[in-house]
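Support request, please re-run this one:
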Amino acid sequence: MNKFLFIFLATLLAITFFTRSNFRRNIAIQPEVLLEPIQTEPADKSLVQFTRDGYDYVLTPVFDYEISGLVVHTFDYSWLHFYKSDVTFPVDLCMIWGKNIISGAYQHPSLKFSQDSRWCQYRWRGQLDFNGSELSNNHLLIDNDALKKLAKSLSAGDQVKIIGKLVNVEAKGVGKLDTYDPEMFRMNTSTTRTDSGAGACEIIFVEDLIILKKGNPLSQMVFQGSIYGLAVWLMYNIVKLLFFP
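Re-run finished. Output below.
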């Protein structure tokens, strides 16, 4: 029974590790993700300043910004990071919207997305009417623990709305920095969806984050449950081995 339980939980974990992030199964599309991002002159052009994770940040608002889309890939830089600033920019969201949704291009089985080193790449085989101008890799800059926790909970398949500001960033280190942390750095946001390559990512100072529809909720629940189940199984077997050999 003990061995069977481990195999059962491990199998559930392995299966749902993939199905929980399957954005192609997302059929109940929300109307917001069919629309273009909204970019307007900032109502408040005041600098945003705060200190977090070893840096004094000064953010220059470029535009007020609102984007809704289908998350096709996420990368959490806060749990395995090389720089202190990665904790303030904890999550990159690769999102698509508009005709990429309407045409069903996102459901093409060969369409793949990946993220690494603050980049989002995509590729496919054969013929596909996919519009790279209706995709963006969004660097989320967050000075709010509740929003940070929510951002870190997102996965591919979720439909979300982000409200905030496109900002240019200047940061200066305070206190002791780690070996690879620069004394200061600057980052400028993209202000158009038609660019690509270095500098093409949107830097969003997040003021609100709304989950329009959670993707694959059953797989997400079973995945989390299998992790907790395996943790309990491991603790039980350690106790059994130590005290009841």
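The first helix runs from residue 2 to 19. The mean pLDDT is 90.
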